[in-house]
Amino acid sequence: MRVFHLSAECYPVAKVGGLADVVGALPKYQVKAGINAAVAMPFYDRKFTHEHEFDTVFQGLTLLGTRRLYFEVLKERYDSLGFELFLIKIPGLIDRTEVYCYPDETEQFIAYQIAFLDWINWSGQTPDIIHCHDHHSGLVPFLMQHSNAYKRLADIPPVFTIHNGQYHGAFSWNKLDYLPDIDLTKTGLLDWNGGLNPLAAAVKCSAYYTTVSPSYLEELSYNSNGLEYLFHIERHKGIGILNGIDTEVWNPATDPMIASRYSTARITQGKQKNKAALCARFNLDTSLPLVAFIGRLVGEKGADLLPEAFERSLNEHAGKVNFLMLGAGDTTTEEQLTALSHKYAEHYAAFVGYDEALAHQVYAGADFLLMPSRVEPCGLNQMYSLRYGTLPMVRSTGGLKDTVTDFGDEGGYGIRFIHASVDDICHSVSRALVLYGNTAQLQKLRKTMMALDFSWDRSASEYINLYNRIISAS
Ligand SMILES: Nc1ncnc2c1ncn2[C@@H]1O[C@H](COP(=O)(O)OP(=O)(O)O[C@H]2O[C@H](CO)[C@@H](O)[C@H](O)[C@H]2O)[C@@H](O)[C@H]1O
Protein backbone atom coordinates (compact mmCIF):
# COMPACT_ATOMS: atom_id res chain seq x y z
CA MET A 1 0.00 0.00 0.00
CA ARG A 2 1.43 3.39 -1.02
CA VAL A 3 0.63 6.26 1.35
CA PHE A 4 1.74 9.90 1.14
CA HIS A 5 1.73 11.98 4.31
CA LEU A 6 1.40 15.71 3.65
CA SER A 7 2.50 18.02 6.43
CA ALA A 8 4.13 21.40 7.04
CA GLU A 9 6.43 19.85 9.66
CA CYS A 10 8.39 16.63 10.07
CA TYR A 11 11.07 15.88 12.66
CA PRO A 12 14.03 16.23 12.20
CA VAL A 13 13.62 18.11 8.91
CA ALA A 14 11.65 21.04 10.37
CA LYS A 15 9.98 21.13 13.77
CA VAL A 16 7.92 23.79 15.50
CA GLY A 17 5.89 21.48 17.72
CA GLY A 18 4.22 18.12 18.09
CA LEU A 19 3.02 17.87 14.47
CA ALA A 20 6.65 17.34 13.46
CA ASP A 21 7.15 14.57 16.01
CA VAL A 22 4.11 12.69 14.71
CA VAL A 23 4.92 13.03 11.02
CA GLY A 24 8.54 12.08 11.69
CA ALA A 25 7.52 8.90 13.51
CA LEU A 26 4.22 7.56 12.16
CA PRO A 27 5.51 6.82 8.61
CA LYS A 28 8.58 5.11 10.06
CA TYR A 29 6.42 2.76 12.10
CA GLN A 30 4.12 2.23 9.12
CA VAL A 31 7.08 1.22 6.97
CA LYS A 32 8.06 -1.27 9.68
CA ALA A 33 4.51 -2.62 9.50
CA GLY A 34 4.87 -3.21 5.74
CA ILE A 35 3.25 -0.02 4.38
CA ASN A 36 5.07 1.97 1.70
CA ALA A 37 4.68 5.31 3.51
CA ALA A 38 6.34 8.53 2.37
CA VAL A 39 6.29 12.18 3.45
CA ALA A 40 5.94 15.10 1.01
CA MET A 41 6.47 18.47 2.70
CA PRO A 42 7.58 22.00 1.83
CA PHE A 43 11.32 22.65 1.42
CA TYR A 44 12.91 24.75 4.17
CA ASP A 45 16.38 26.26 4.13
CA ARG A 46 17.48 24.47 7.31
CA LYS A 47 20.24 22.41 8.86
CA PHE A 48 18.67 19.13 7.75
CA THR A 49 18.49 20.17 4.11
CA HIS A 50 22.10 21.37 4.17
CA GLU A 51 23.38 18.20 5.78
CA HIS A 52 21.60 15.65 3.57
CA GLU A 53 21.84 14.74 -0.09
CA PHE A 54 18.87 15.06 -2.40
CA ASP A 55 18.01 14.06 -5.96
CA THR A 56 15.69 16.15 -8.08
CA VAL A 57 12.96 13.70 -9.08
CA PHE A 58 10.62 16.14 -10.80
CA GLN A 59 10.57 19.67 -12.19
CA GLY A 60 7.44 21.48 -13.27
CA LEU A 61 5.75 24.78 -13.95
CA THR A 62 2.46 25.60 -12.32
CA LEU A 63 0.15 28.54 -11.76
CA LEU A 64 -0.99 30.28 -8.61
CA GLY A 65 -3.71 32.51 -10.01
CA THR A 66 -1.85 34.38 -12.73
CA ARG A 67 1.58 33.87 -11.17
CA ARG A 68 3.78 31.30 -12.91
CA LEU A 69 5.75 29.12 -10.51
CA TYR A 70 8.66 26.84 -11.23
CA PHE A 71 8.93 23.97 -8.75
CA GLU A 72 11.14 21.00 -8.00
CA VAL A 73 10.51 17.83 -6.04
CA LEU A 74 13.62 16.68 -4.16
CA LYS A 75 13.99 13.22 -2.68
CA GLU A 76 16.34 12.52 0.20
CA ARG A 77 18.83 10.09 -1.32
CA TYR A 78 19.26 7.45 1.40
CA ASP A 79 15.81 7.34 3.06
CA SER A 80 17.71 8.03 6.26
CA LEU A 81 14.54 8.74 8.24
CA GLY A 82 13.23 5.24 7.63
CA PHE A 83 10.82 6.37 4.91
CA GLU A 84 10.96 8.25 1.62
CA LEU A 85 11.12 12.00 2.13
CA PHE A 86 10.14 14.39 -0.66
CA LEU A 87 10.57 18.16 -0.42
CA ILE A 88 8.60 20.53 -2.63
CA LYS A 89 10.77 23.52 -3.48
CA ILE A 90 9.45 26.67 -5.13
CA PRO A 91 12.26 29.24 -5.41
CA GLY A 92 11.21 32.60 -3.97
CA LEU A 93 8.13 31.16 -2.23
CA ILE A 94 8.92 27.83 -0.58
CA ASP A 95 12.65 27.85 0.16
CA ARG A 96 12.86 29.93 3.34
CA THR A 97 14.10 29.20 6.86
CA GLU A 98 10.93 29.42 8.96
CA VAL A 99 7.94 27.10 8.78
CA TYR A 100 5.22 29.64 9.63
CA CYS A 101 4.43 33.31 10.06
CA TYR A 102 5.30 34.80 6.68
CA PRO A 103 2.80 37.38 5.36
CA ASP A 104 2.26 35.25 2.24
CA GLU A 105 1.72 32.03 4.20
CA THR A 106 -1.61 31.41 2.44
CA GLU A 107 0.12 31.54 -0.95
CA GLN A 108 2.92 29.32 0.32
CA PHE A 109 0.68 26.51 1.51
CA ILE A 110 -1.66 26.65 -1.49
CA ALA A 111 1.31 26.52 -3.85
CA TYR A 112 2.76 23.57 -1.90
CA GLN A 113 -0.49 21.63 -2.28
CA ILE A 114 -0.86 22.46 -5.99
CA ALA A 115 2.75 21.52 -6.74
CA PHE A 116 2.33 18.22 -4.88
CA LEU A 117 -0.81 17.34 -6.85
CA ASP A 118 0.76 18.41 -10.15
CA TRP A 119 3.73 16.17 -9.44
CA ILE A 120 1.59 13.14 -8.54
CA ASN A 121 -0.68 13.75 -11.50
CA TRP A 122 1.94 14.40 -14.18
CA SER A 123 4.29 11.68 -12.99
CA GLY A 124 1.49 9.14 -13.32
CA GLN A 125 1.54 8.02 -9.68
CA THR A 126 -1.62 6.66 -8.05
CA PRO A 127 -1.09 6.32 -4.31
CA ASP A 128 -3.63 4.27 -2.36
CA ILE A 129 -4.11 6.92 0.32
CA ILE A 130 -3.19 10.57 0.67
CA HIS A 131 -2.97 11.38 4.36
CA CYS A 132 -3.21 15.11 5.06
CA HIS A 133 -2.22 16.63 8.40
CA ASP A 134 -3.80 19.90 9.59
CA HIS A 135 -4.96 22.81 7.47
CA HIS A 136 -1.69 23.26 5.55
CA SER A 137 -2.73 20.36 3.31
CA GLY A 138 -6.48 20.71 3.92
CA LEU A 139 -7.32 21.77 0.35
CA VAL A 140 -5.93 18.58 -1.17
CA PRO A 141 -9.08 16.44 -0.66
CA PHE A 142 -11.23 19.15 -2.31
CA LEU A 143 -8.81 19.67 -5.20
CA MET A 144 -8.55 15.94 -5.94
CA GLN A 145 -12.32 15.62 -6.06
CA HIS A 146 -13.45 18.91 -7.60
CA SER A 147 -10.71 20.29 -9.82
CA ASN A 148 -10.68 19.40 -13.49
CA ALA A 149 -6.91 19.63 -13.30
CA TYR A 150 -6.75 16.49 -11.13
CA LYS A 151 -9.52 14.29 -12.51
CA ARG A 152 -7.15 11.31 -12.61
CA LEU A 153 -6.72 11.54 -8.82
CA ALA A 154 -10.42 11.84 -7.96
CA ASP A 155 -10.74 8.28 -6.68
CA ILE A 156 -7.75 8.36 -4.34
CA PRO A 157 -9.20 8.43 -0.83
CA PRO A 158 -7.89 11.16 1.46
CA VAL A 159 -7.49 10.79 5.21
CA PHE A 160 -7.36 13.97 7.23
CA THR A 161 -5.84 14.20 10.71
CA ILE A 162 -6.48 17.13 13.00
CA HIS A 163 -3.56 17.90 15.30
CA ASN A 164 -4.83 21.34 16.16
CA GLY A 165 -8.39 22.46 15.46
CA GLN A 166 -7.73 26.02 16.64
CA TYR A 167 -5.93 26.96 13.42
CA HIS A 168 -7.91 26.75 10.16
CA GLY A 169 -5.74 28.55 7.59
CA ALA A 170 -8.83 30.52 6.49
CA PHE A 171 -8.50 33.14 3.76
CA SER A 172 -10.63 35.43 1.69
CA TRP A 173 -12.73 34.48 -1.33
CA ASN A 174 -10.80 36.92 -3.46
CA LYS A 175 -8.04 34.29 -3.56
CA LEU A 176 -10.34 31.64 -5.00
CA ASP A 177 -8.57 31.94 -8.36
CA TYR A 178 -5.48 30.36 -6.77
CA LEU A 179 -7.31 27.01 -6.94
CA PRO A 180 -6.86 25.53 -10.41
CA ASP A 181 -9.86 24.84 -12.63
CA ILE A 182 -12.32 23.95 -9.87
CA ASP A 183 -15.98 23.01 -10.23
CA LEU A 184 -17.66 26.28 -9.19
CA THR A 185 -20.85 24.48 -8.18
CA LYS A 186 -18.88 22.87 -5.34
CA THR A 187 -17.43 25.97 -3.68
CA GLY A 188 -19.82 25.50 -0.74
CA LEU A 189 -17.48 22.73 0.39
CA LEU A 190 -14.73 25.32 0.84
CA ASP A 191 -16.85 27.76 2.78
CA TRP A 192 -17.14 28.40 6.47
CA ASN A 193 -18.52 31.54 7.97
CA GLY A 194 -17.95 33.69 4.91
CA GLY A 195 -14.37 32.64 4.24
CA LEU A 196 -12.51 29.92 2.48
CA ASN A 197 -11.59 27.49 5.24
CA PRO A 198 -9.11 24.66 4.46
CA LEU A 199 -9.69 22.80 7.74
CA ALA A 200 -13.47 22.80 7.23
CA ALA A 201 -13.05 21.82 3.57
CA ALA A 202 -10.89 18.83 4.52
CA VAL A 203 -13.42 17.60 7.06
CA LYS A 204 -16.26 17.97 4.54
CA CYS A 205 -14.36 16.27 1.69
CA SER A 206 -12.83 13.32 3.57
CA ALA A 207 -14.70 10.06 4.16
CA TYR A 208 -13.12 10.04 7.62
CA TYR A 209 -11.18 12.51 9.66
CA THR A 210 -9.13 11.58 12.68
CA THR A 211 -8.17 13.44 15.81
CA VAL A 212 -5.02 12.74 17.79
CA SER A 213 -6.89 11.50 20.86
CA PRO A 214 -10.42 10.14 21.49
CA SER A 215 -11.28 12.89 24.01
CA TYR A 216 -10.30 15.63 21.55
CA LEU A 217 -12.78 14.25 19.02
CA GLU A 218 -15.58 15.02 21.48
CA GLU A 219 -14.13 18.41 22.43
CA LEU A 220 -14.08 19.74 18.87
CA SER A 221 -17.89 19.94 18.94
CA TYR A 222 -17.73 22.56 21.66
CA ASN A 223 -14.23 24.06 21.28
CA SER A 224 -12.83 24.48 17.78
CA ASN A 225 -12.55 28.20 17.21
CA GLY A 226 -15.81 28.57 15.28
CA LEU A 227 -16.09 25.12 13.68
CA GLU A 228 -18.16 23.60 16.50
CA TYR A 229 -21.30 23.16 14.41
CA LEU A 230 -19.33 21.54 11.59
CA PHE A 231 -17.82 19.01 14.00
CA HIS A 232 -21.22 18.40 15.51
CA ILE A 233 -22.78 17.50 12.16
CA GLU A 234 -19.75 15.60 10.88
CA ARG A 235 -19.15 13.73 14.13
CA HIS A 236 -20.06 10.36 12.54
CA LYS A 237 -16.99 10.63 10.28
CA GLY A 238 -14.58 11.26 13.16
CA ILE A 239 -12.21 8.71 14.68
CA GLY A 240 -9.94 9.39 17.65
CA ILE A 241 -6.53 7.71 17.40
CA LEU A 242 -4.15 8.48 20.24
CA ASN A 243 -0.67 9.56 19.13
CA GLY A 244 2.28 7.43 20.03
CA ILE A 245 5.84 8.51 20.70
CA ASP A 246 9.00 7.56 18.85
CA THR A 247 10.61 5.33 21.45
CA GLU A 248 13.89 5.31 19.53
CA VAL A 249 14.29 9.09 19.68
CA TRP A 250 12.81 9.35 23.18
CA ASN A 251 14.64 6.71 25.15
CA PRO A 252 16.50 7.62 28.38
CA ALA A 253 18.61 4.46 28.02
CA THR A 254 20.13 5.58 24.69
CA ASP A 255 19.41 9.32 24.41
CA PRO A 256 22.63 11.00 23.20
CA MET A 257 21.36 14.46 24.21
CA ILE A 258 21.18 13.85 27.97
CA ALA A 259 23.99 13.97 30.54
CA SER A 260 23.57 10.43 31.86
CA ARG A 261 21.65 7.55 30.30
CA TYR A 262 19.43 5.42 32.49
CA SER A 263 16.82 2.70 32.50
CA THR A 264 14.32 1.65 35.17
CA ALA A 265 17.07 -0.33 36.91
CA ARG A 266 19.10 2.80 37.74
CA ILE A 267 16.39 5.38 37.69
CA THR A 268 17.34 7.15 40.95
CA GLN A 269 21.01 7.69 40.08
CA GLY A 270 20.19 8.37 36.43
CA LYS A 271 17.68 11.08 37.13
CA GLN A 272 19.85 12.57 39.86
CA LYS A 273 22.83 12.94 37.50
CA ASN A 274 20.68 14.56 34.83
CA LYS A 275 19.11 16.85 37.40
CA ALA A 276 22.56 17.86 38.68
CA ALA A 277 23.71 18.74 35.14
CA LEU A 278 20.56 20.72 34.44
CA CYS A 279 20.65 22.58 37.76
CA ALA A 280 24.34 23.38 37.32
CA ARG A 281 23.58 24.98 33.95
CA PHE A 282 20.79 27.12 35.41
CA ASN A 283 22.29 27.77 38.87
CA LEU A 284 19.54 25.93 40.72
CA ASP A 285 19.81 23.88 43.90
CA THR A 286 19.78 20.15 43.02
CA SER A 287 18.37 19.12 46.39
CA LEU A 288 15.05 20.90 45.78
CA PRO A 289 12.16 19.49 43.74
CA LEU A 290 12.31 20.75 40.16
CA VAL A 291 9.06 21.57 38.35
CA ALA A 292 9.47 22.28 34.62
CA PHE A 293 7.41 23.59 31.74
CA ILE A 294 8.23 23.00 28.05
CA GLY A 295 6.11 24.36 25.26
CA ARG A 296 4.85 27.06 22.98
CA LEU A 297 3.94 30.14 25.03
CA VAL A 298 0.36 30.48 23.80
CA GLY A 299 -3.08 30.59 25.40
CA GLU A 300 -3.85 27.00 24.39
CA LYS A 301 -1.01 25.79 26.58
CA GLY A 302 -2.14 27.98 29.50
CA ALA A 303 1.22 29.79 29.25
CA ASP A 304 -0.27 33.15 30.30
CA LEU A 305 -1.06 31.57 33.69
CA LEU A 306 2.54 30.63 34.36
CA PRO A 307 4.05 33.94 35.55
CA GLU A 308 1.48 34.39 38.33
CA ALA A 309 1.39 30.68 39.21
CA PHE A 310 5.20 30.47 39.43
CA GLU A 311 5.44 33.64 41.51
CA ARG A 312 2.70 32.61 43.89
CA SER A 313 4.20 29.13 44.39
CA LEU A 314 7.69 30.57 44.84
CA ASN A 315 6.34 32.73 47.67
CA GLU A 316 4.07 30.08 49.16
CA HIS A 317 6.89 27.52 49.27
CA ALA A 318 9.78 29.93 49.67
CA GLY A 319 13.12 28.12 49.33
CA LYS A 320 11.45 24.73 48.87
CA VAL A 321 10.89 24.47 45.13
CA ASN A 322 12.62 25.30 41.86
CA PHE A 323 10.99 26.05 38.50
CA LEU A 324 12.48 25.85 35.03
CA MET A 325 10.73 27.16 31.93
CA LEU A 326 11.66 26.34 28.31
CA GLY A 327 9.48 27.98 25.70
CA ALA A 328 8.86 30.72 23.18
CA GLY A 329 5.80 32.45 21.80
CA ASP A 330 3.72 35.36 23.03
CA THR A 331 6.10 38.26 23.71
CA THR A 332 4.31 39.57 26.81
CA THR A 333 4.44 36.12 28.39
CA GLU A 334 8.09 35.75 27.37
CA GLU A 335 8.90 39.09 29.04
CA GLN A 336 6.99 38.24 32.22
CA LEU A 337 8.68 34.85 32.48
CA THR A 338 12.10 36.39 31.90
CA ALA A 339 11.48 39.12 34.49
CA LEU A 340 10.82 36.44 37.12
CA SER A 341 14.26 34.97 36.60
CA HIS A 342 15.81 38.25 37.80
CA LYS A 343 13.55 38.45 40.84
CA TYR A 344 13.84 34.79 41.89
CA ALA A 345 17.25 33.91 40.41
CA GLU A 346 18.00 31.25 43.05
CA HIS A 347 14.85 29.23 42.47
CA TYR A 348 13.63 29.96 38.99
CA ALA A 349 15.17 29.96 35.52
CA ALA A 350 13.78 30.61 32.06
CA PHE A 351 15.17 29.72 28.65
CA VAL A 352 13.23 31.70 26.08
CA GLY A 353 13.71 30.06 22.70
CA TYR A 354 13.62 26.70 21.05
CA ASP A 355 16.22 24.08 21.97
CA GLU A 356 15.60 20.42 21.12
CA ALA A 357 18.53 19.06 23.15
CA LEU A 358 17.59 21.11 26.18
CA ALA A 359 14.05 19.71 26.00
CA HIS A 360 15.48 16.18 26.26
CA GLN A 361 17.63 17.29 29.20
CA VAL A 362 14.62 18.78 30.98
CA TYR A 363 12.50 15.63 30.52
CA ALA A 364 15.40 13.65 31.99
CA GLY A 365 16.41 16.04 34.78
CA ALA A 366 13.16 17.51 36.12
CA ASP A 367 11.07 15.86 38.82
CA PHE A 368 7.73 17.18 37.57
CA LEU A 369 6.46 18.49 34.24
CA LEU A 370 3.63 21.03 34.31
CA MET A 371 1.04 21.20 31.48
CA PRO A 372 -1.82 23.56 32.36
CA SER A 373 -3.26 23.40 28.80
CA ARG A 374 -6.60 24.97 27.97
CA VAL A 375 -6.69 22.84 24.82
CA GLU A 376 -4.55 19.76 24.23
CA PRO A 377 -5.49 17.63 21.22
CA CYS A 378 -3.11 14.92 22.38
CA GLY A 379 0.05 16.32 23.93
CA LEU A 380 3.36 14.54 23.58
CA ASN A 381 5.26 16.22 26.40
CA GLN A 382 3.43 14.22 29.07
CA MET A 383 4.28 10.96 27.26
CA TYR A 384 7.94 11.94 26.94
CA SER A 385 7.99 12.90 30.59
CA LEU A 386 6.45 9.56 31.62
CA ARG A 387 9.06 7.74 29.56
CA TYR A 388 11.82 9.64 31.40
CA GLY A 389 10.27 8.98 34.85
CA THR A 390 9.22 12.62 35.32
CA LEU A 391 5.80 13.00 36.86
CA PRO A 392 3.37 14.97 34.64
CA MET A 393 1.08 17.56 36.26
CA VAL A 394 -1.68 18.07 33.73
CA ARG A 395 -4.96 19.81 33.30
CA SER A 396 -7.58 17.17 32.66
CA THR A 397 -8.39 17.88 29.02
CA GLY A 398 -8.09 16.23 25.58
CA GLY A 399 -5.24 13.78 25.20
CA LEU A 400 -3.93 14.65 28.68
CA LYS A 401 -7.09 13.10 30.08
CA ASP A 402 -6.53 10.01 27.90
CA THR A 403 -2.92 9.43 28.94
CA VAL A 404 -2.43 10.60 32.54
CA THR A 405 -4.16 9.24 35.64
CA ASP A 406 -3.91 10.80 39.09
CA PHE A 407 -1.60 9.13 41.60
CA GLY A 408 -4.34 9.55 44.22
CA ASP A 409 -6.48 7.06 42.28
CA GLU A 410 -5.96 3.30 42.18
CA GLY A 411 -3.00 2.57 39.88
CA GLY A 412 -2.60 6.26 38.98
CA TYR A 413 0.80 7.87 38.27
CA GLY A 414 0.47 11.60 37.55
CA ILE A 415 -1.17 14.74 38.94
CA ARG A 416 -4.39 15.91 37.33
CA PHE A 417 -6.29 19.12 37.91
CA ILE A 418 -9.62 20.37 36.58
CA HIS A 419 -9.26 24.06 35.75
CA ALA A 420 -6.72 25.95 33.66
CA SER A 421 -6.28 28.42 36.51
CA VAL A 422 -3.55 29.80 38.75
CA ASP A 423 -5.32 28.30 41.78
CA ASP A 424 -5.32 24.79 40.33
CA ILE A 425 -1.71 25.03 39.22
CA CYS A 426 -0.60 26.19 42.67
CA HIS A 427 -2.62 23.46 44.35
CA SER A 428 -0.97 20.80 42.20
CA VAL A 429 2.47 22.27 42.94
CA SER A 430 1.66 21.82 46.64
CA ARG A 431 0.63 18.21 45.99
CA ALA A 432 3.86 17.63 44.04
CA LEU A 433 5.96 18.93 46.93
CA VAL A 434 4.25 16.62 49.43
CA LEU A 435 4.82 13.70 47.06
CA TYR A 436 8.47 14.70 46.63
CA GLY A 437 8.87 14.34 50.38
CA ASN A 438 7.73 10.72 50.16
CA THR A 439 10.76 9.22 48.44
CA ALA A 440 9.49 5.63 48.46
CA GLN A 441 6.19 6.55 46.81
CA LEU A 442 7.90 8.74 44.22
CA GLN A 443 10.32 5.93 43.37
CA LYS A 444 7.46 3.52 42.89
CA LEU A 445 5.58 5.96 40.67
CA ARG A 446 8.67 6.57 38.55
CA LYS A 447 8.98 2.85 37.90
CA THR A 448 5.28 2.67 36.99
CA MET A 449 5.62 5.62 34.61
CA MET A 450 8.68 4.27 32.84
CA ALA A 451 7.01 0.90 32.30
CA LEU A 452 4.07 2.44 30.41
CA ASP A 453 3.92 1.79 26.68
CA PHE A 454 2.97 4.71 24.44
CA SER A 455 4.94 3.55 21.43
CA TRP A 456 3.62 4.06 17.91
CA ASP A 457 3.13 0.34 17.23
CA ARG A 458 -0.48 0.35 18.43
CA SER A 459 -1.52 3.68 16.89
CA ALA A 460 0.27 2.99 13.59
CA SER A 461 -1.75 -0.17 13.15
CA GLU A 462 -4.98 1.70 13.97
CA TYR A 463 -4.23 4.04 11.03
CA ILE A 464 -3.46 1.06 8.80
CA ASN A 465 -6.80 -0.54 9.74
CA LEU A 466 -8.49 2.72 8.83
CA TYR A 467 -6.69 2.84 5.45
CA ASN A 468 -7.81 -0.73 4.72
CA ARG A 469 -11.37 0.10 5.66
CA ILE A 470 -11.39 3.15 3.38
CA ILE A 471 -9.79 1.34 0.46
CA SER A 472 -12.18 -1.59 0.64
CA ALA A 473 -15.16 0.81 0.80
CA SER A 474 -14.00 2.88 -2.20
N1 LIG B 1 10.89 25.74 23.33
C1 LIG B 1 11.00 24.45 23.00
N2 LIG B 1 12.22 23.89 22.87
C2 LIG B 1 12.33 22.57 22.53
N3 LIG B 1 11.29 21.75 22.31
C3 LIG B 1 10.07 22.28 22.41
C4 LIG B 1 9.84 23.65 22.76
N4 LIG B 1 8.51 23.87 22.79
C5 LIG B 1 7.92 22.71 22.46
N5 LIG B 1 8.85 21.76 22.24
C6 LIG B 1 8.62 20.38 21.80
O1 LIG B 1 7.55 20.42 20.84
C7 LIG B 1 6.72 19.30 21.03
C8 LIG B 1 5.36 19.78 21.53
O2 LIG B 1 4.46 18.83 21.28
P1 LIG B 1 2.93 18.86 21.79
O3 LIG B 1 2.29 17.67 21.21
O4 LIG B 1 2.90 18.92 23.25
O5 LIG B 1 2.34 20.23 21.29
P2 LIG B 1 1.89 21.03 19.96
O6 LIG B 1 0.88 21.96 20.47
O7 LIG B 1 3.05 21.61 19.30
O8 LIG B 1 1.25 19.96 18.96
C9 LIG B 1 -0.07 19.75 18.41
O9 LIG B 1 0.04 18.50 17.69
C10 LIG B 1 0.47 17.42 18.53
C11 LIG B 1 0.69 16.23 17.64
O10 LIG B 1 -0.50 15.66 17.22
C12 LIG B 1 -0.52 17.17 19.66
O11 LIG B 1 0.05 16.20 20.52
C13 LIG B 1 -0.77 18.47 20.43
O12 LIG B 1 -1.75 18.27 21.42
C14 LIG B 1 -1.17 19.57 19.46
O13 LIG B 1 -1.41 20.78 20.15
C15 LIG B 1 7.44 18.40 22.00
O14 LIG B 1 8.32 17.57 21.31
C16 LIG B 1 8.21 19.41 22.86
O15 LIG B 1 9.31 18.82 23.52
Short summary:
By secondary structure, the protein is α/β, with parallel strands linked by helices. Helix content is 37%, strand content 20%. It is built from 16 helices and 17 strands.
Silhouette: elongated
| CATH fold-level assignment of the largest domain | Rossmann fold
User: What are the low-pLDDT stretches, counting only 5+ consecutive residues below 50?
Assistant: none
**CATH class assignment of the largest domain:** Alpha Beta
Helicity level, as a percent range? 25-40%
Overall number of domains: 2
CATH architectural name of the largest domain: 3-Layer(aba) Sandwich
The small-molecule ligands in this entry are: adenosine-5'-diphosphate-glucose
- Average pLDDT taken over every residue: 97
Name of the CATH superfamily of the largest domain: Glycogen Phosphorylase B
Distance between the termini: 14 Å
Largest sheet: 9 strands, mixed
How many DSSP-defined strands? 17
- State which percent range the strand residues make up: 15-25%
Kindly report the spatial arrangement of strands forming the biggest sheet.
3-4-5-2-1-6-7-10-11
The total of helices stands at 16
Give the structural class: alpha/beta
Instruction: Determine Rg (CA atoms, Å).
Output: 23 Å
